[in-house]
Amino acid sequence: MKEELKKSIEEYVEALGADGFHKGKRWKGYDVYIPEYQKHACVGLPYIVMAREGEVRFSTEEESLEYLSFSETEDAKGITSEN
Fold first, then answer.
1. 34 DSSP β-pair partners
2. End-to-end CA distance of the chain
3. In the predicted model, what is the mean pLDDT of residues 56-68?
4. How far apart are CA 23 and CA 34, in angstroms?
5. Is the pLDDT assigned to residue 31 strictly greater than 50?
6. What distance in Å separates the CA atoms of residue 20 and residue 9, rounded to the nearest whole number?
7. Which long-range contacts does 38-46 make (Cβ < 8 Å, 24+ apart)?
8. Residue 68 Cα to chain centre, angstroms
9. What pLDDT sits at residue 83?
10. Using CA atoms, how far apart are residues 14 and 73, in angstroms rounded to an integer?
11. Beta strand pairing status for 20-23 and 55-58?
12. Count of domains in the chain?
């Protein structure tokens, strides 16, 4: 991962109050980064950080729910982000 992209993702994750992140499953052409919390966090919707072609952004409310459904379906099929 390019250092500039990583720094941008880290800034977005920090803005969510998260302690770190891990790479999720690729979705709709985006690389997805999932915030990680060391302590219990009440944050509402499961927002993700999405990156494509060097641009980084938060998911919308709708995208958050769509990705949650997508990732749970993929998990049920045994598909991981490494596949």
1. 22
2. 18
3. 95
4. 6
5. yes
6. 10
7. 41/17, 43/16, 43/17
8. 10
9. 46
10. 28
11. unpaired
12. 1
Give a yes or no: residue 82 inside a domain. no
Q: According to the model, what pLDDT value does residue 43 have?
A: 63
Instruction: Answer yes or no: is 41 within a domain.
Output: yes
Q: Does 83 reside within a domain? A: no
**Cβ(23)–Cβ(81) below 8 Å:** yes
User: Would 16 be classed as within a structural domain?
Assistant: yes
Query: Please, which residues have CB within 8 angstroms of residue 5's CB and are 6 or more apart in sequence?
Result: 51, 54, 56
Domain containing 56 equals 3-76
In 3D space, the residue among 32, 22, 27, 23 whose CA is nearest the CA of residue 70 turns out to be: 27
- pTM higher than the cut 0.85: no
φ/ψ of residue 24, rounded to 5: -95, -165
Buried b (16+ CB within 10 A) or exposed e, 37-59: eeeeeeeeeebbbbbeeeebeeb
In contact, 47 and 35? CB cutoff 8 Å: yes
